[in-house]
Amino acid sequence: MTSPRPRRSHFVDLAPLRESPAFARLWIGGTIAGIGAQLTVLAVGLQLYELTRSTLAVGLVGGIALLPMLVAGLWGGVLADALDRRRLLIVSASTTWAATAALVAVSAVSAAEHEAGRAVALWPFYALTTVISVCATVTGATRTAVTPRLLAPALVSRAAALSGIGIGVQLTLGPALGGLLVASIGYPLTFTVDLVLFSAGFLGILTLPAVPPSPVEAGAARRRGFAALADGFRFLRGAPNIRAGFLIDLAAMTFGRPYALLPAVGAVAIGGGAATAGALTAAFAVGTFLTSLLSGRVMHVRRYGLAIGRSVIAYGACIAGFGVVIAVVLAGRSPSGDTALSLPALLVAAVLLAGAGAADEVSAIFRSTMLMTAVPDELQGRMQGVFQVVVTGGPRLGDLWVGILATAVALWFPPLFGGLLVVAAAVAILRLQRGFRDYDARTPTP
């Protein structure tokens, strides 16, 4: 594969899609499947809130899945270094599809029981969403570990930007579609739509070429098993820049993730119910999408650590501002409990979440590129596994964080306090980790 000549444009570079048809199919299939996955994330939260009227019950979706996801991310990374990555993707995607099909049935039974006034068991929701989350962690680690095999090194940062567009599309269309479908056709059929959309993900996976482990990968991971995982952690201990990237993202996703609050925000604060929850989730994704669309100049940025730190500071500030909006709206609500839609509050909240999405995408592009270019290929699976633990485990911790604090203090407290914590963490990491702050993409150093 030859590296294309650098270009100067503000728009995203589509060269990875042109240069690698396998990457293009994987990207398209993953994006369509991801729309359905985000649709289900919103619908599960809405149905649990409708059944329980508890933000904590919504937050427990992430909290219960956390430990299994930690194990899946780490061990999935070992498997990605030891097995054919295409086959591993097929197994994890098939399991996700089966769990989503079971969720359709559980949703239908629960809706009928609730309508009849009978008690509804919540554990099937938690069990199935845990299976889906575990498989998503394995799939994410393996899919990203495949990318450097399909593309020339110069295209990796542009592929990371395209991944941001895919995520932006998923987070924009998925929640918005989910809110509309829940309001119009109900929960079971909404989950059925996810089944149909998820099937598109098999297009990119099944048409991949075989991606066997290299001799170094196969020898380390197959011969030593858990020792291969230990090798990954030893590498991470000696990789301060990769470690700092993990820590700064973990802080942002743990303390600055407001998604579990959105059903309650739509119901008792801003108003508008499920449609508001979907719109606010989509607003975050709009920021992600627009940033990725205008990412053509990312290849000219060299100071990755500084770019990551500044973008995370902006992210925390936007999340804190979202908490202020909720506090102001709740303070202005009449004691009678009127929850009519407040359009000005919705617009301001949407702008702040779009800003958070934009800042998060800047950070994601450079963190992903740093990981894919500074880590040796024989360790890609294991480091991508740790990365998936951070990017998927952090949000689950965040869901639990906001669920507990919103219940114990107030709805506005978790985003306001958490956003300020994110800013403080980013400032501290930039000050304390000089190598991370001065990271230069021309000499990738883990």
UniProtKB/TrEMBL annotation:
**Which residue spans traverse the membrane?**
26-49, 55-76, 88-109, 121-138, 150-173, 185-206, 268-291, 312-331, 343-366, 412-432
Q: Which Gene3D superfamilies match?
A: MFS general substrate transporter like domains (1.20.1250.20)
State the UniProt keywords alphabetically: Cell membrane, Membrane, Transmembrane, Transmembrane helix, Transport
The terms under GO molecular function for this entry are: transmembrane transporter activity
UniProt keyword Transferase present: no
The principal localisation class reads membrane
Q: Where in the cell is it found?
A: Cell inner membrane
Q: How does it sit in the membrane?
A: Multi-pass membrane protein
One GO cellular component term, please give it: plasma membrane
- Per UniProt, residues of the Major facilitator superfamily (MFS) profile domain are 193-446
Q: Which PANTHER family match?
A: ENTEROBACTIN EXPORTER ENTS, INTEGRAL MEMBRANE EFFLUX PROTEIN-RELATED
Output this protein's name.
Answer: MFS transporter
